[in-house]
Amino acid sequence: MANPSSIECGRDNVWIDFVKIDVPPTDGMLFTAWVQTNPLLGAPPFSRGNQNGMRIYGTCTNPYYTWELWGVGNNCGAYWDSDYGGWFTYLSFNTMFGSYKNYGTEGGDGGDFTFYQSSALDLTVAQVQDWHWVAWWVKIGTDRITLVQWVKVGTADSEVRRNESVLLYSTLRANMVSIYGWTLAEANAWIPSTIGVTQCADDIGYYTRINVCQTATEPTQAQLDALYADQIPPGGILWGKYPFRWSGGAADISDHSGNGHNMALWDAGSVLYEGIPGPLADTSTVDITAFLASCF
């Protein structure tokens, strides 16, 4: 039996054909998902640009200022190297950060962070073509934003690729002044406070098995392993569990954790489609006993 179908996003309108969480965790958010390109990568040579899996609209203590964070993946390709006599491949995942003023209308991209890119001989073509699991943890501090990214390449990967970046407010504010022309007073008034509305599956592609957790500390390996297998993580950190699959002729974007944090379409005109079979067999039924036990 085929695995449950994923959800295809961005087919008709890449600007609205995705979903959101209006009230995400505020004190440290962990976002995980399985992602796949659309169209699927065919026989090499091939290349594919960035595929956004997540986008956070962050808030500041003064609503005049904002910040945004993109979780980016599946920038990949394969090309023939005649000297080597084989296919060279690459695959990258990272985050991008932007700081803004005037209610989000002025500012700019602060750069790429948590950058992972495979070396030319690290991955086979089949690995690059496979589904990939990615997790992003975002923590808002008093003087910094901490970002950690984990990637598992393909469904049979035993290696967890971890990348961390610390965004010091002092550095970001200096860039606001020197690069974007803010005044020093404006830069000092930019004070991130909470994680805001979060877009999920924010690009053309196939997505499934999205989980969102609230944790003020970096998740443990045991918690990450559980989420990779689409199981309940220990420690009571689960905020929302979204099979994000096609079920009964419609996209299932509801929260199956019991917490009631359902996703919503981004726009009244947003349209989602049935995607290709996902990477995992059906494990969508939550064991309530196990869930309650994980909370203590």
Rounded mean pLDDT score? 92
Oligomeric state of the chains in view: single chain
How many DSSP E strands? 19
- What is the number of domains? 1
Structural class, please? mainly beta
Query: What's the alpha carbon Rg, rounded to whole Å?
Result: 19 Å
Shape: globular
Strand fraction equals over 45%
| Largest sheet properties | 9 strands, antiparallel
Distinct helical segment count: 5
Which segments are poorly predicted (pLDDT under 50) over 5 or more consecutive residues?
284-296
Bin the helical content: 10-25%
Give a topology summary.
Elements: E1 5-9, E2 19-21, E3 29-36, E4 46-48, E5 51-60, E6 66-81, E7 86-101, E8 106-117, H1 125-129, E9 132-140, E10 144-153, E11 161-168, H2 169-178, H3 184-189, E12 192-194, E13 198-200, E14 205-214, H4 221-228, E15 238-242, E16 245-247, E17 250-252, E18 264-265, E19 273-277, H5 288-294
Describe this protein with a few key phrases:
mainly beta; eight-stranded antiparallel β-sheet; 19 strands; globular; disordered C terminus
Summarize it.
The chain has helices at 125-129, 169-178, 184-189, 221-228, 288-294, and strands at residues 5-9, 19-21, 29-36, 46-48, 51-60, 66-81, 86-101, 106-117, 132-140, 144-153, 161-168, 192-194, 198-200, 205-214, 238-242, 245-247, 250-252, 264-265, 273-277. It has 296 residues and is mainly beta.
